[in-house]
Specification:
Elements: H1 2-12, H2 21-26, E1 31-36, E2 39-43, E3 49-57, E4 60-68, H3 74-89, H4 94-109, H5 115-126, H6 133-146, H7 148-151, H8 161-172, H9 176-195, H10 206-213, H11 234-243, H12 248-260, H13 264-268, E5 275-276, E6 281-284, E7 295-298, H14 301-311, H15 334-341, H16 350-362, H17 367-373, H18 381-386, H19 392-406
Antiparallel strand pairs: 1-2, 2-3, 3-4, 5-6, 6-7
Helix pairs in contact: 5-9, 6-9, 8-9, 12-14, 17-19
Length: about 425
């Protein structure tokens, strides 16, 4: 109580100075030495000396460091103390006020970064690791369409919840999938900017509040399932495809896709160098796989017959297995559009589900063999650690049975023997 009684007496008589420059240098004993008006010289146990402003605010004693005597002479320390006393008279906390001043000074010296600049730099840094150029292009295009017109030239530190909602709300219900991707990309850019101190005052609750502010979307989050052909009808579907008026290359590619239970992208970009016909094996490199892991596909006799038909002669073929007439890759919609022309409502990707349903209901192969045939990764990390084999020989038996089933009411295709 004595200390604060003395402090208030000194603040009332702050014009009376108790320290001199000579006295400041002479003080050696650790402790606080009053100058008046709440200004103190603090001598630490190690002998270092600094200025302290002591004050009362809302019934609470506060200490505010003003810096070392090496950086600030007595006269300047008195000026600082006077300025902070004036703030107290206005009911302003000097410590909070000084923190705000420092924030403003940092903002003034910080190079201003716009959202567009941050997005461009983020894209340049990360896009090299993305799966393909199409995704990289689409990533930036979505921001250019939906975000840049609204906040592209705005300081990334000044983008708040209202700005983000103004971008998302117009497309949240009508184009929900696009809006969800745009939201993820805005967040990635803002997090990137915050990590580099381009964005100050980052609100940790921002995205939770945005999620609660956006309207609920009925059924829009349900995963999209590709319409699959019932496995009982796969033979009839194959006959329809073989009899249609499409080019022989397209028909064979569609049949190849069904018999190997492959993704259409894997088939459209399949190259001859990936095939070993003697060992009845197709090895798809990791960079073309969704999981980023090399995948081996066993080739049934029926599939080998398709490949030999495409090879067109004894010479070792090169390039794409199923090219367009100009030697390029077929588009992603080529096969699906052909199904539509034939009046078949299911998709080519859906034949993978057809195969999986057949394998589960018509064979006794373990689930891990069936999943491996579809190049699906083990969902359980512990099982995956012990299951290091790709079960290739087991899958060969399975794929041979599948090809036989698809052709069960037609004569078998010739085997590999000439």
């Amino acid at each position: 109580m004595h200390l604060w009684a003395d402090l208030w007496a000194e603040m009332a008589n702050y014009r009376r100075q108790r320290l001199t420059a000579l006295a400041v240098n002479a003080k050696k004993e650790p402790g606080y030495y009053a100058d008046g008006g709440g200004l103190y010289l603090r001598v630490a146990a190690g002998g270092t000396k600094s200025w302290m402003f002591r004050f009362m605010l809302n019934g609470r004693a506060r200490d505010m460091g003003l810096g070392s005597i090496l950086d600030k002479p007595l006269a300047q320390a008195r000026e600082d103390a006077l300025r902070y006393r004036q703030l107290l008279l206005d009911g302003i906390d000097p410590i909070t006020h000084r923190q705000g001043e420092r924030e403003k000074a940092r903002d003034a010296t910080r190079k201003r970064r716009t959202f567009r600049e941050c997005a461009t730099e983020y894209h340049a840094t990360h896009s090299t690791g993305w799966r393909n150029a199409k995704h990289a292009k689409e990533w930036m295009a979505s921001l250019a369409t939906h975000v840049f017109p609204a906040v592209g030239d705005k300081d990334v530190s000044h983008i708040g919840k209202a700005d983000i909602l103004a971008v998302l709300e117009p497309i949240w219900l009508t184009r929900h999938e696009t809006a969800s991707r745009v939201r993820q990309r805005i967040r990635a850019v803002l997090d990137w900017a915050a990590a580099r101190d381009f964005r100050t005052g980052h609100d940790p609750h921002l995205w939770d509040q945005i999620a609660r502010s956006l309207p609920r979307t009925k059924d829009v989050r349900k995963p999209k399932h590709f319409l699959a052909c019932p496995y009982e009808q796969v033979g009839a579907a194959l006959r329809t495809i073989r009899a249609c008026g499409a080019s022989n290359c397209i028909k064979l590619a569609m049949e190849f896709t069904i018999l190997t239970a492959s993704r259409t992208g894997m088939v459209r970009m399949a190259a001859w160098e990936e095939f070993d016909l003697d060992k009845r094996r197709w090895t798809i490199p990791a960079e073309r796989m969704k999981a980023g892991v090399e995948h081996r596909v066993p080739l049934s006799p029926q599939v080998l017959a398709i490949l030999k038909s495409q090879a067109r002669g004894p010479a070792k073929p090169q390039g794409l297995v199923f090219p367009t007439p100009s030697g390029k890759t077929h588009s992603d919609m080529t096969f699906t559009m052909q199904l539509r022309r034939l009046g078949l409502e299911f998709t080519m990707h859906g034949f993978r589900s057809t195969f999986r349903d057949w394998a589960a209901e018509q064979t006794a192969f373990p689930a891990e063999v069936c999943e491996s045939a579809l190049a699906h990764a083990q969902r359980d990390a512990t099982e995956a650690a012990y299951f290091r084999s790709d079960l290739f020989e087991k899958r060969r038996e399975l794929m041979d049975l599948w090809a036989d089933y698809c052709n069960h009411d037609e004569p078998m295709r010739p085997s590999t023997s000439e």
